[in-house]
Design goal:
The complex is a heterodimer of chains A (326) and B (317). Chain A is an alpha/beta fold and 326 residues long. Helices cover 33% and strands 23% of the residues of chain A. Chain A contains twelve helices and twelve strands. Chain A starts with 5 loop residues before the first strand and ends in an 11-residue tail after the last strand. An eight-stranded mixed β-sheet of chain B has the order 6-7-8-3-9-10-12-11, sandwiched between helices. The chains are: A alpha/beta (326), B alpha/beta (317). The complex binds adenosine-5'-triphosphate (ATP) (2 copies), iron/sulfur cluster (SF4) and magnesium ion (2 copies).
């Protein structure tokens, strides 16, 4: 059996309102091996960010809480770890780049101070921290690190902030990097440089990567395996090549069809999946994709499919892809 | 040529803080947006796109140059009139939404402020939420209860609620899955087919910019380095930065093998004091480029480029 660095088993995150709790993340299973790069894609609002925040036990609680499941990191269950142990893990062993970086930096403090403090929290001396900070900022293509250090967050552009966050995460040499939409504000040449930097680090360390993105081009370029989320669950888990060649879930297939390809003529309507994603608090017990699925059969209305083996992939769909793939 | 609804003339913006070096975020940008047209803006991170957006909608005053809407100076219009005509969808949706205000209240506020749909506000709010593929169940949420893509769509709904004639969209689809992104793009194109509305579409997603734009401007370090029709700029790029962009677009196909490190590691040093801003990253650099900054010139059919080598090549051909 291959070694596993992070293993989410049956993770359930619930939203509490009064005495009611409704699950939003509904039993996510996900494994990451040391040195592996896993991409997480999926519907907007499907629970990707909440899943990632759960790993570090950073859910805004209340109203959100982990209701069930294990978060095994190198064999240790973080779901039941003490706050003190979690502080050791955060940043040093598992580093996270947040989707909303502006709110994770303090608006009143210089950026350089905040990066250096983060490094010092992991044992660097003041002088070391200062030097590492500057190098780290340079590595992510920030051309004027001195100015960036002296700036307040609001004085930097969206892409500059994102790079500060990436630099901060990488500087601690984590065993696992979790990056939630980290390159949305970067132009493609700088994005490529960041991806190359991650790949370079991986040639000398066994850092594993969990990369949340809507950019299927980044997925194709960076990751070994892809996890697709829909309505709080993993609906497909596939090697990258397989996912693009033979999607095993109708939702994945629909996503691929929504890309503006070269065949699309200028300003024509793009393919979109009809209908809306379900309200996670009002699921009917059937397949959550059924109302939008062109391939639904009777069974889909009554039973929610678990992840079923489909060749090298796994997909939560009752139907064999051969029966519906063109 | 269509009527120009928005014009930027030599817009510049410098930011200076106590004892800090001055940042010349924008260094002389001129542009025109035609009635009912879409202008795409792409460029390096930090090159001044969001700054330009704020100047165009009148949220900040430029340190030099000016902007005008249908011939009237933007700064001479009062806030309400300006907001009624031009709306900005901010790059960071969370910071543009009031954290204490539920979605319905935020949308109602703009409708009341502009006396739109008086008496039928709630119905209009439901309609707007449906339009951006959210649905009315999101009306009672606070911003922090929304995912990244949901917040982005609330910000788009709020801008469209005003029914403006110009919308500046700063990275409007970066947090959306490809299907929802397609839906939003279809919505924007659909509105434009029905009514006269003009867009400025700022994005790093080149395939989307190509899809929606009539004309495209490419920015680098506070200036426009190339502009023209969408196909001129993206299918036959002239400026070496645009070429680098076009080559770096990640293709959603894992079988495409990319030569590792096609771009040199970027260690650009910020604006240079002399010559072309791109000289340190440029594969075509010549001695002349180190001395003289290239101006943005038309090389035929309104395709403009600011590169000595590119200009020479096009005139020889
Ligand atoms: N505090 C909260 N209260 C109520 N609902 C919440 C809260 N936080 C998140 N949600 C909901 O939980 C669901 C999952 O959110 P999450 O942020 O994990 O989505 P996501 O997959 O990261 O989406 P995106 O791609 O748009 O960032 C969303 O539908 C969101 O509206
Ligand atoms: N209020 C401010 N004070 C000081 N500098 C600022 C301020 N706002 C922006 N800047 C600087 O101006 C430059 C341009 O920033 P801007 O946000 O316009 O870039 P951008 O092109 O939108 O980048 P991105 O693609 O990363 O969003 C950056 O160097 C930024 O640090
Ligand atoms: S289980 Fe049924 S409804 Fe769900 S995706 Fe598969 S075919 Fe469609
Ligand atoms: Mg998210
Ligand atoms: Mg910006």
């Amino acid at each position: 059996m291959t070694e596993i660095l992070l293993s989410l088993r049956g993770l359930v995150v619930g939203l509490r309102h009064g005495h009611d709790v409704s699950p939003i993340v509904r039993g996510v299973n996900l494994d990451v091996a040391p040195g592996e790069r896993v991409g997480v894609v999926g519907e907007s609002g499907s629970g990707k960010t909440l899943t990632m925040l759960s790993v570090l036990r950073l859910l805004p609680s209340p109203p959100l809480e982990i209701l069930d499941g294990e978060i095994l990191f190198a064999g240790e269950n973080l779901a039941s770890a003490s706050e003190r142990r979690l502080r050791e893990v955060r940043g040093a062993e598992i580093a996270m780049v947040y989707q909303d970086p502006m709110t994770s930096l303090n608006p009143l403090l210089h950026v350089g101070y905040q990066v250096a403090e983060a490094l010092k929290a992991h044992g660097a001396s003041t002088i070391q921290a200062r030097e590492t900070t500057r190098d780290a900022l340079r590595q992510v293509g920030l051309s004027d690190p001195e100015r960036v250090e002296r700036s307040y967050p609001h004085e930097l552009s969206g892409g500059m902030i994102q790079r500060v966050m990436i630099a901060m995460a990488l500087a601690a040499s984590p065993r696992l990097l979790i990056a939630d939409e980290p390159t949305t504000a970067l132009d493609v040449t700088i994005q490529q440089q960041i991806l190359d930097l991650v790949l370079d680090i991986q040639t000398t360390t066994s850092m594993a990567v969990l990369w949340v993105t809507h950019d299927l081009g980044v997925v194709a370029r960076l990751v070994d395996r892809v996890v697709v989320m829909y309505a709080g669950r993993v609906v497909e888990d596939a090697p990258t090549r397989e996912l693009f060649r033979h999607p095993s879930h109708p939702y994945t297939a629909a996503l691929l069809a929504s890309l503006p390809g070269t065949q699309h003529s200028h300003r024509s309507l793009l393919h979109q999946i009809g209908g809306n994603p379900p309200d996670p608090t009002r699921l009917d017990g059937g397949c959550p994709f059924r109302p939008r699925c062109p391939f639904a059969i009777d069974q889909c209305a009554h039973e929610e499919p678990p992840l079923l083996p489909r060749g090298e992939s796994r997909a939560a769909c009752w139907r064999e892809p051969d029966s519906w793939l063109p | 040529m269509a009527t120009v609804v928005l014009r930027g003339m030599d817009l510049a913006q410098r930011y200076e803080g106590r004892g800090k070096s001055v940042v010349n975020a924008l260094r002389g940008v001129s542009l025109e947006l035609g009635e009912g047209a879409t202008l795409g803006i792409v460029g390096e991170s930090g090159c001044g796109k969001s700054t330009l957006a704020r100047l165009l909608v009148g949220l900040e005053r430029p340190s030099a140059g000016s902007a005008e809407m249908s011939g009237e100076s933007t700064s001479s219009l009062d806030g309400r009139t300006r907001a009624r005509r031009i709306q900005l969808v901010f790059q960071d949706p969370y910071s543009s939404l009031d954290p204490r205000q539920r979605v319905r209240a935020a949308l109602r506020e703009v409708l009341t402020f502009h006396h739109l749909h008086s008496g039928a506000e709630d119905q209009r709010i439901d309609e707007l939420l449906d339009m951006v593929a959210l649905g009315r169940r999101f009306a009672n949420r606070y911003p922090h209860e929304l995912s990244g893509g949901q917040a982005q769509r609330v910000a788009i709904a709020r801008a469209l609620a005003v029914e403006p004639t110009i919308v500046v969209l700063d990275e409007p689809t970066s947090a959306l899955d490809v299907s929802v992104r397609a839906e939003i793009i279809n919505l924007l194109i659909g509105i434009q087919a029905r009514i006269t509305i003009s867009y400025i579409f700022i994005s790093h997603d080149l395939s989307m910019v190509r899809h929606v734009s009539d004309t495209i401007a490419v920015m680098y370090l506070g200036r426009i380095v190339e502009s023209g029709s969408y196909d001129q700029v993206l299918d036959a790029p002239l400026h070496p930065y645009t070429v680098a962009l076009a080559q770096a677009v990640p293709v959603p196909d894992p079988t495409v093998v990319r030569p590792h490190r096609v771009t040199p590691v970027l260690t650009a040093t910020g604006p240079t004091t002399r010559g072309c801003d791109y000289q340190d990253r440029c594969p075509l650099v010549e001695p002349h480029c180190r001395d003289v900054a290239p101006s943005l010139d038309d090389v035929g059919s309104n395709h403009r480029v600011a590169c000595h080598v590119a200009k020479r090549r096009t005139t020889i051909e």
